[in-house]
Structure formats: C-alpha cells, structure tokens
Write a structure and sequence with these properties.
Layout (H helix, E strand, L loop, with lengths): L3 H6 L3 E5 L5 H12 L4 E5 L3 H10 L4 E2 L3 H6 L4 E4 L6 H8 L6 E4 L6 H11 L6 E4 L6 H9 L5 E9 L21 H5 L1 H12 L3 E9 L11 E8 L4 E7 L6 E8 L2 E8 L8 H16 L10 H21 L7
Helix pairs in contact: 2-10, 5-6, 6-11, 7-9, 9-11
Length: 326
C-alpha cells in the first residue's frame, strides 16, 4: 500500500473511471466539498461527457485511458462505466489495494453479474456498490426501529423519469443487454430499499412490465416485481418511469399498523448521495492510515440485490419477447 505517512501527507487523490451517468458528477462535488484540495483524476471515452465534467471541475486531470488514472496513484477509485465494462475496471484495480466504489448498477444481466462477481470476491472487503437510497436518513432510521417479526407485507414505489432515453440521453440504459432497462436502472432503488429494511434472504416470485405511455422505448416505463422473503414477508416493487418527478416511497404493513417513508427532492441530502460518498471516503481514510478497509455494505448483500433485480429483468424481458426465449 506504500508509505502510510507519505500517503496521508499528500492531497487526497480520487480516480474517476467513467462518467456514464449523472452520479459521478454528484460524487465529485461531494468529495471536493469535503476535500477542497483533492486531486481528481478522470477517464471517460465520450468526449462530450468529459468536457461537461471538466467544465464543472476545471482542476480535474483527464487521462486517455483507465491505465492513466491508475498510474496517477489514487487513494480510491469510483467506477461509473456502463455495466458490461465494470468487470474489466475492477480487474484493473484489483492489485492496487485501494477502496473501490461501483456506482449502481454493478451489473444489468446475470452474465455480467457472474463476471463482476468473479472479480470482486477476492477483494470484496474493499468494494462498495449500492443505491444511494440505502444511506438516506429516513431509511436508516426505519431500519433501526422496525421489528421484522411484526412485518406482514412491504411495498416500494420508485418514480423516476425515463423519457430522456427517447431523446438519446443515456439511452444505453434502455438497452436491456447493456443497462437492463427501467427494471434494473430504476427498479434497483426499490430492491435496495426493501432489502436494506428486510434482509437479503428472498426470492423473486413474479415480474410484469410494459409500456403504458412512453412509446418507442426498448424496455418499459412501468413494472411490478413480486418478492417473498424467507421469513414469509411478501413484497412488491413498483417501477414508474412515466413520470416528471423523482420520488421513492416505502410502506411496511405490520401487526401494529403502517410504517411509511418517502424520499423526494428538497432538504439536505434527501436521497443519500452525500452520505454514500462519506462512507466511501471513510474507506479511503482507513487505507491512507494503514488500517483495514471494510466496506459498509457486504458484497454478499449487494450481490443478493443485483441477482434479484437482474433476475426480475430477465424474466420480464423474456416474457415480453425483448430477449429471445430460453
């Protein structure tokens, strides 16, 4: 890991591998707000996205390839590539003993998940991958107080506009073989919410999807996923992509009544973006101090969420004829 004292004496250096979504832009803003002298190293093959990033963060250093970011000696790396490219990025970082944050989703198909899993497992303790919603304060508060033995059913509703895909903005997410469609891109938030609250022992019981309003999509603008937990709790995840708002809600029906939370824009860090990066920076700080690097979310937990959502996606898209029949 190099000289720990030397590592702590120099400015924090964070490598950004890919800028495929909006998340790395928010991540960089949070990092710089906490560490104004941080050195940001970035690689992004799409010139237009890179230009936007450099305009917003003019002190960042751009590199021609992933190897350039690694050679800059980052203290931690944030991967935000398209899912088919994530396994290779993790592999390139595996020998460098630094924390790695993979922006969601780390995989969009079962085949991608198998590839990513093979690369992550040997270094799982220093890999974090999650929907930011896990760390939103209302979610953490409900998780701390809920009595799982008294929960009967659970419902997560995810509202997030996907109409931008029709205009060509991040439209690779609409390709179920690349981004997983709305079920993976948007639905993973609902899966993360329910698994954070109810645990990672569950099965996907059913998936339905369709296009109700946004004609021309390759995937869907609505979906419903049925989930059964090993303790008998029944759950549903509603994915609403035909909407102009971003809002996430959970309702747990319990023997004592209904527990609800709602996450919407407004206030300080309503969706957990900043808290997520603060957890990652905690991992980075541990590495710079020569302490064990421990992800706040076990890979087994993340893997269960990914396997659940990509299984739901696969079933829906085979049924809809988007993917060839098995």
């Amino acid at each position: 890991m190099g000289n720990t004292r030397e590592s702590r004496s120099r400015p924090l250096t964070i490598g950004f591998i890919g800028l495929a979504t909006s998340h790395p832009f928010a991540d960089a803003a949070t990092i710089i707000s906490r560490h104004p002298d941080a050195a940001v190293q970035v690689w992004e093959p799409e010139a237009d996205r890179l230009a936007v990033f450099l305009d917003r963060f003019p002190t960042a250093s751009a590199h021609d390839g992933l190897a350039g970011v690694i050679d800059s000696g980052p203290d931690g790396a944030i991967i935000s590539t398209r899912p088919p490219e994530i396994a290779a990025a993790v592999s390139a970082l595996a020998d460098h003993e630094i924390p790695v944050f993979i922006n969601k989703p780390a995989a969009a198909t079962l085949e991608q998940l198998a590839d990513v899993d093979a690369q992550v497992r040997p270094i799982a303790e220093r890999v974090l991958s999650t929907s930011v919603l896990r760390f939103a304060e209302p979610v953490q508060s409900l998780a701390a107080r809920i009595d799982l033995d008294r929960v009967l059913t659970a419902r997560a509703t995810v509202r997030h506009d996907v109409a931008r895909w029709l205009a060509g903005s991040t439209d690779w997410q609409d390709d179920v073989r690349v981004g997983g469609g709305a079920i993976v891109t948007i639905g993973i938030h609902g899966m993360e919410l329910l698994v954070t609250l109810l645990g990672a022992r569950f099965e996907i019981e059913s998936t339905m999807s369709g296009i109700r309003h946004l004609e021309g999509l390759k995937s869907e603008d609505t979906a419903v996923i049925g989930v059964r937990w090993s303790n008998g709790v029944l759950g549903t995840i509603e994915v609403i992509g035909a909407t102009e708002e971003e809002r996430y809600s959970v309702a747990l029906e319990t023997l004592d009544g209904t527990e609800t939370i709602e996450l919407r824009s407004g206030g300080q860090d309503p969706f957990g973006y900043e808290r997520t990066i603060e957890h990652f920076l905690g991992m980075v700080d541990a590495g710079r101090r020569g302490l064990p690097i421990v992800s706040p979310v076990a890979w087994e937990h993340t893997h269960a969420i990914l396997e659940g959502i990509v299984t739901a996606s696969s079933r829906a898209h085979h049924r809809a004829g988007i993917l060839p029949a098995r």
